[in-house]
Design a protein that fits this description.
This protein has 79 residues and is mostly helical. The longest helix is centred in the last third of the chain and has 31 residues. The chain starts with 9 loop residues before the first helix and ends with a helix. The relative contact order is 0.11.
């Protein structure tokens, strides 16, 4: 576990921990389960267009935040 430095805020600490977790096997498994569940909702009457709209929105927001977290990590490593 990475120890927090004095100048690192709690928010930065949790952002780095989240970035580390997103690159792990449990994260891949969780995302796979969520995608299977989302597409399976078609069998319960949810329209396919609605499923794709929701997934596209969620994945886009996740990509934006992950790119910010990755940039924070790059900036931290170049200091």
């Amino acid at each position: 576990m990475v120890k927090r430095t004095e100048r690192e805020s709690s928010l930065e600490y949790y952002a780095f921990q989240l970035t580390k977790w997103m690159g792990s096997i449990p994260s891949i498994l969780l995302h796979t389960v969520l995608f299977v569940a989302a597409f399976s909702s078609w069998f319960f009457g949810v329209e396919f267009d609605t499923i794709l709209l929701l997934l596209t929105t969620i994945v886009s927001l996740e990509a934006i935040y992950l790119s910010l977290f990755i940039q924070m990590t790059v900036n931290r490593n170049t200091e």
